[in-house]
């Protein structure tokens, strides 16, 4: 690496700017802190090693979100995932007074988690989510609609 190479600085800037967002998206998909941290780390390793030339910051952000979603889905499809027993099931963790809505989103089926989180928590439009997740605009709209319906049912049950 050249002394004048700005790549490490760009990497640090990207981590500062997007690290929390990447972690939150991984948490929504995976529902487990350790797995979300692993995916976050892997996303930034890919950024450092394999990132394309970005047109602008928004292009970089969308690329990071797409990589995060893909890594999470790969992890959820893994055969070992079905053999995991959540620690909370064996050792209940006291309620931390968390956000009921955020908890409900984490418990959505995996196909609804990403679009709901990206739209309502990260502020992305339907078209942007379509590009990030590489699904059609109509699929995003349908997943948002069904995700809202499931959230409404879940949150009404808690009242």
Describe this protein with a few key phrases.
159 residues, Rna Polymerase Sigma Factor, Chain: A, mainly alpha, Arc Repressor Mutant, subunit A, 2 domains
Can I get a quick summary?
The chain contains 8 helices and no strands.
Characterization of this structure:
This protein is mainly α. It has two domains: 1-91, Rna Polymerase Sigma Factor, Chain: A (Orthogonal Bundle), CATH 1.10.1740; 98-159, Winged helix-like DNA-binding domain superfamily/Winged helix DNA-binding domain (Arc Repressor Mutant, subunit A, Orthogonal Bundle). 72% of the residues lie in helices and 0% in strands. The protein is globular and about 50 Å long. The N and C termini lie far apart (58 Å). 25% of the residues are buried.
